[in-house]
UniProtKB/TrEMBL annotation:
<dbReference type="Pfam" id="PF01966">
    <property type="entry name" value="HD"/>
</dbReference>
<feature type="domain" description="HD-GYP">
    <location>
        <begin position="226"/>
        <end position="411"/>
    </location>
</feature>
<dbReference type="InterPro" id="IPR037522">
    <property type="entry name" value="HD_GYP_dom"/>
</dbReference>
<dbReference type="InterPro" id="IPR006674">
    <property type="entry name" value="HD_domain"/>
</dbReference>
<protein>
    <submittedName>
        <fullName>Hydrolase</fullName>
    </submittedName>
</protein>
<dbReference type="Pfam" id="PF13487">
    <property type="entry name" value="HD_5"/>
</dbReference>
<dbReference type="GO" id="GO:0016787">
    <property type="term" value="F:hydrolase activity"/>
</dbReference>
<keyword id="KW-0378">Hydrolase</keyword>
<dbReference type="InterPro" id="IPR003607">
    <property type="entry name" value="HD/PDEase_dom"/>
</dbReference>
């Protein structure tokens, strides 16, 4: 099994929007400094996508070579990936910028075959004159980082709720005022080229249609990941969500280990066992969209909170379905809260639509959750957990055979 990395990177970038959605805030550094802005519940920021568009336009204006242009595209989508581990913590406004650069660089270091891009992510808030986060200056700053700094600033200065013609001249002036301080002359001249066309600003104004524009700019990227490399990607996703709550610190990895163990017991071939492990690593990635105050609530959830937390399986599917080549894995991971009697969520499908793999994943998830400490209770022992699982078998919620396979696999 091989999957192209050009379907995985956009999925990783979605996690940043989900993290911002869950805290209903965005962090931006514009030319007036760092700000934390409130967003409404259903407002997706599209920041990574707009920054990618701006970066690719700049890359074309700079006539980057083919390989650098490809690297620029990947970095532009991943540049804020470190926010996923930062937004939930109580860092000061000034700390957030440097820490998210470090976190993002560390994540990219662990992405197979593109780990060499970590420095470009690390230094994407540097200033040409050396007054940035890590005080790199001039040609010490990778060209990709320089472009990302410009694209980041343009998007942060741009007001998506105002017409472009009311603000483009102001933005041009702000950029000019910072030449040889934040931006090099070379990057500034590239900006002048792209910003002279109304089309550039219209594309920013109509960001909901930006996919149509970006598709004509995206370079072909022929990088394939094998199964073990996909497992590495899965561990990145798992660590993102498990880091969000101290009570689920190893939940995703625990599910992955259980799913792999049960799959071996059933007799699946090696590749399928690894696919099940990957589904376990991926299954809760949608929780990035759920506020930590709900995940960590010390007590029962009210109706609205439960509705919010149930949506995580929907967001898991949203992310995984954006990746070509893992359709089975997406289905197994996303259906882990469905029930045989149709009383599960988010689709409410019944046993006729739940494969053996989905049933195994659901049972592993319930067992793992029951045996883990939660804010409102201590984890159960094995016997107590299986007592509850057996009751759920009796009421038609989960699969008896899947429960028996889990029992036998655990010994």
């Amino acid at each position: 099994m091989q999957v192209s990395i050009d379907t995985i990177i956009p999925a990783l970038s979605i996690t940043v929007s989900l993290a911002e959605k869950s805290v209903e805030k965005v962090v931006r550094e514009n030319l007036n400094g760092v700000t934390i802005q409130d967003i409404v519940f259903d407002d997706y920021t599209y920041h990574s996508k707009r920054a990618a568009y701006i970066a690719l336009e700049l890359g074309n204006a700079l006539q980057l070579d083919e390989d650098t242009y490809k690297d620029l595209y990947m970095c532009s989508l991943l540049h804020d990936i470190g926010y996923g581990n930062v937004l939930y913590k109580n860092y000061s406004v000034d700390e957030v910028i440097g820490i998210h650069c470090l976190e993002g660089s560390n994540i990219v270091k662990h992405i197979p075959k593109i780990c060499y891009l970590s420095d470009a992510i690390l230094y994407h808030h540097e200033h040409w004159d050396g007054n940035g986060v890590f005080q790199k200056k001039e040609t010490e700053i990778p060209i990709i980082s320089q472009i990302l700094r410009m694209s980041d600033i343009i998007d942060s200065e741009y007001n998506t709720h105002a017409p472009y013609f009311e603000q483009k001249d102001k933005i041009k002036g702000l950029i000019l005022d910072n030449v040889n301080m934040i931006f090099s002359q070379n990057i500034y001249e590239a900006f002048l080229k792209i910003s002279s066309a109304d089309e550039f600003w219209l594309n920013l104004e109509n960001n909901r249609y930006l996919d149509l524009v970006i598709n004509h700019l995206i370079p072909p990227i022929d990088i394939k990941l094998n199964m073990q490399e996909l497992i590495n990607i899965g561990e990145i996703f798992a660590d993102m969500i498990d880091a969000k709550s101290e009570f689920t610190a190893r939940h995703s990895r625990g599910i992955a280990e259980l799913a792999y163990m049960v799959s071996k017991h059933i007799g699946y071939d090696d590749e399928k066992c690894l696919k099940m492990k990957l589904a376990g690593l991926f299954h809760d990635i949608g929780k990035l969209a759920i506020p930590s105050k709900i995940l960590d609530k010390n007590g029962p959830l009210d109706g609205d909170e439960f509705s919010r937390i149930k949506s995580h399986a929907y967001f898991t599917r949203l992310i995984l379905d954006s990746m070509d080549g893992i359709e089975e894995i997406s289905n197994w991971a996303s259906n882990h809260h469905e029930k045989l009697n149709g009383n599960g969520y988010p689709r409410g499908i019944d046993g006729d639509m739940l494969s053996e793999e989905c049933r195994v994943m659901a049972v592993c998830d319930i067992y793992q959750a029951l045996t883990e400490d939660r804010p409102y209770r201590k984890g159960m022992n094995k016997d107590m957990a299986f007592c509850i699982l057996d009751t759920m078998v009796e009421d038609g919620s989960i699969c008896k055979i899947a429960v028996e396979n889990l029992k036998n696999a655990l010994g």
